[in-house]
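User: New here, please read:
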Amino acid sequence: MPVSTGTVLLIAITELAKGGVSLAGHTSILRKRASGFADDDFVIKNEFLALTFDQSSGSLKYLTNLETNTTISISQTFAYYVGSVGNNTKEPLRASGAYIFRPNCTGAGPDCSRPLEGNGTYEIVKGPLVQEVRQYICAWVSQVIRLHATSKKVHFEWQVGPIPVGDGIGKEIVSRFSTNLKSGTEFFTDSNGRQNIKRRRNFRPSFNLNLTEPISSNFYPVVDRIFIQDETAGSQLTILTDRAQAGSSLLEGQIELMVHRRLLVDDWLGVSEPLNEPGLGEGLVVRGSHHLIFTNIAKSPRRHRLASHDLYWHPALLLLPVSSTTSQADLNRITQSAYSGLSVDLPVNIHILSIEQWKGSSLIVRLEHFFEKDEDPVLSQPAVVNLKDILRDFVITSVREMTLDGNVALTDVHRLQWSKVDQEDYGTLGTDASKIHRIPHDIGTTFTLNPMEIRTFQIEIGPSL
């Protein structure tokens, strides 16, 4: 089973008197509309970040990192691509569908998309723990831009749908972040939440690209993060996602992510129906989050990797109904219940991927080092873990390192040796897994994990003495 290093929070809900209660430190709400207000900007901020919004529209204008005293101009908007409705008889006539993203750029703007214009209605909510701007973009798109008191990232929580298709047009919705960062043609996406891959617009590193689809050919899978860098300014803008999405940077200083799709023509690639799910009749509503991190390039890996880890392994909230007569002793017993198999804290760059029962008294334990080489001067260094420290209630009688799936001992694995066409290093293909060099060498139940390494162990255990 997956193992979270997060926290379980137990929240007891008491019965409130019919007349209501007064909550200390409650948030105050200030409602504003586009009409009747001056063009002054307004700001929400904490000790790390400041966000400046346009008074008339409620749109984001500037973002300042107060730690580095760096400000960029930034906007966040929603837009949609019109799905192609070709007859699928040949590739130039392929329809956009479940397996194909192929926008119809006829009559669209220079970037092929069509903006979803906001109506200027928004609310500002401020309190001691959180500040937020609630934007009402249109009848089927809304968003909350949220800044927590101690957070170094900005939370964008969006809701999109049901996508209207009464006009006979299939639509593919994107959330777009536009800045004045000089990122050129390069941007970065993650590979299944682990390594970062450099992308270059309208380019492929291993072959000459015949560009026939200038929009869709520049979209890539984004499982965890996408970011752009301004090397001259030394700044990086990173967007963390809460699910796998398609993402791109079609213009300099810009990031966009696909958040919802509804199409009316099948692409003839397998499902035999259009991507048009009616849900309860009107269409599906999708709700999700993006988390924005803006800091200098050197600090970004530490910031976004640790933030991503915390977001994925977020605390589990358990709500327990109790009455006003529940004793304090019972509340303490509920809220203070905790267990950890750790006898000491793991290194910050190490994560327990899984612990699962194997055969008899054996366990399979997988550990990962989730920083890349040379990303961070401290957290990209090898880390040492003693397996006894994560199984404190058991006696470890033997340890054997296995392949990732746990089926074969690593000492029995001998990979085929492949010759390379050129000397460019694309990884460790052809390396004998039993001869991987590690510093320092493993001793007993103490093992070293190098950057981006996942190690799997079969552990025989006995009861604690």
About this structure: Residues 79 and 116 are 5 Å apart (CA to CA). The mean pLDDT is 85. The chain is about 5% helix and 40% strand. The first strand starts at residue 8 and ends at 13.
